[in-house]
Amino acid sequence: MKKRLFSGIQPSGDVHIGNYLGAIKNWIALLNDYDCIFSIVDYHAITVEYDPGLMQKRILNAAAVNIGAGLDPDRCILFVQSQVPEHTELTWILNSLTPMGLLERMTQYKDKAKQNEKNVNVGLFDYPVLQTADILLYKGCAVPIGEDQLQHVELSREIARKFNMRYGELFPEPQHLLSDAPRIMGLDGKSKMSKSMDNYISLIEDPDTIWKKLSRATTDENRKRRNDPGNPEICNLFTLHKYFSNETEIAKVNKECRTAEIGCIECKRILSDNMVKALAPIREKSLALMNKPDDVLDVLNTGAKKCRKIAEETMEEVRSLMGLRLVKV
Ligand code: AQP
Known about the structure:
mainly alpha; Rossmann fold; Tyrosyl-Transfer RNA Synthetase; three-stranded parallel β-sheet; two-stranded parallel sheet; 13 helices; 5 strands; 55% helix; elongated; binds adenosine-5'-tetraphosphate
């Protein structure tokens, strides 16, 4: 029996190269080794303001891009969180085991509360408990994520432990899995690449936009003029070269940036060409799937059906352990 793996992505905007390098690429690599469940976590995406008229499209697009990137739905389950009501039921139960103090420490909550000062809602605060329910509902042992989600997975272990101690052994303590690109910085070089910030390159970006975005991206800020030698170690774009360029190109950029043989524009051109090449097949497949939303819907409905069955079974066990299942006496 393979171990169960769970992870999710919010339909909160365009899926970007940070999501891909930090999570999706790893999901694809792990398909053989685990029994994989991936979710488009729409309930997580409603904790900030959004346009309900766009949500359906965002969900379908997020699914299409994940499949387009290589997440083969024949080798995993892909479904939408809100199609399985047990996610919110288990959240309520886990809420009653989670100390407020632990949630107050979550850095993502603190950051998002600062970004959305006018809408600091309970959902935003409770986000990590819903995430714990997402994982535990399927008894997920492994959770491949980017570094920003590390604290949440640590919390999920703590909540699983609390449940097991209080009501009886049921849940595994989920272990995080990080990729070799756990934190891709945004094009500003200052904050994490994020769907909700204008600092990303999406997986379906067209070649012109990739070039436009890269040509404006921040590099080594100490390099003021073309003839100044640069320092690749502190240049965000050099980090991206490591994921898109070949070894010879990386060595060339590394050397010639330091000696000012090439300037930032030449360096960006190499990166842009390689990124366009690498993303082309993902873009092509994703766009084709976006034009066939019924096919994507079929995949998601099949996934939800499988997940509902697992989720119902887990909730029966939860209710039983908690004395919430009424039986004839
Ligand atoms: N910049 C990143 N580098 C590496 N990994 C990342 N992930 C996100 N950004 C980066 C990982 O991608 C997976 C899906 O992320 P998510 O959609 O659940 O939400 P998020 O972490 O909040 O991502 P965003 O793009 O920053 O969304 P918004 O702006 O809506 O909050 C996760 O495993 C995440 O770690």
